[in-house]
Amino acid sequence: MKNAIPKKVVDVLKDIGETSQTSTWDCHGTTVILHKALEKVAAHKGITFDAPVVIESDVEKKMVVVLVTGRYGDKTEWSFGEAAPYNLKNNYPFAMAEKRAKDRVILKLVGLHGDAYSETEADEFSQAKPSKLNQESYEDLIMELMPSVRAIKDGIAVNDLATANEAWSELSTTEKELLWVAPSKGGVFSTTERATMKTPEFRQAS
User: Fold this and answer.
1) pLDDT digits over 92-136, tens only?
2) Strand positions, DSSP E, 35-144
3) Are residues 67 and 159 in the same domain?
């Protein structure tokens, strides 16, 4: 049976107009919050971040550790974000390490650390994410991603794969999963666009 969402989590999400149904899921008894929801929490609370400090990096081995410090009023918290082959399945270790560190700091600053975790904490959280969100939530999320979608589609249309790839790369794994729906099922990318995005030319464009 799914565990009850901690009230503190519900209250924080309510402040940003979200609910546990739209922004969390249960991963074997652990409450997992969408990265996008935590970004909204940080913006709503006025949380600020110092520039991340790279503690270790090996691009070839896809191993990155960064230190992020965040501030909320007179409160300061810091955390490390780690990305390595054993806990990362995408090709963006720097971006993921930073997201993990920031999400942990946000959770600490708003008092949710230990009550919930970010979806970026480990790939297993994303893998355990329910395959279907309710339609209203899905449509809301897609609308928020439309600037990125438009940049990708426009880039592909004029064969500017570097711009299109950059916009795609800036999306989180979960956001990519939400967008990667076949056009026959309401997906935003056409069959031709999806075919282009699968090519080595697209993936390597910069």
Assistant:
1) 889 889 999 999 999 999 999 888 999 888 665 665 566 554 554
2) 48-49, 53-58, 63-72, 75-83, 117-118
3) no
pLDDT digits (tens, 9 = 90+) for 44-82: 999 999 999 999 998 888 889 999 999 999 999 999 999
CA dist 42 and 110 (Å) reads 9
Q: With a threshold of 0.70, does the pTM exceed it?
A: no
Average pLDDT of span 139-163: 85
Cβ atoms 197, 156 nearer than 8 A:
yes
Give the distance, in angstroms, between the CA of residue 79 and the centroid of all CA atoms in the same chain.
17
Q: Which residues pair with 66 in a beta bridge?
A: 54, 81
Determine contact, residues 93/61, Cβ cutoff 8 Å.
no
Domain boundary among 127, 149, 169: 127
- Rounded distance between C-alpha atoms, residue 88 and residue 12, angstroms: 28
Q: Which residue from 27, 26, 24, 29 is spatially nearest to 11, judged by alpha carbons? A: 24
Domain end residue (candidates: 127, 151, 186): 127
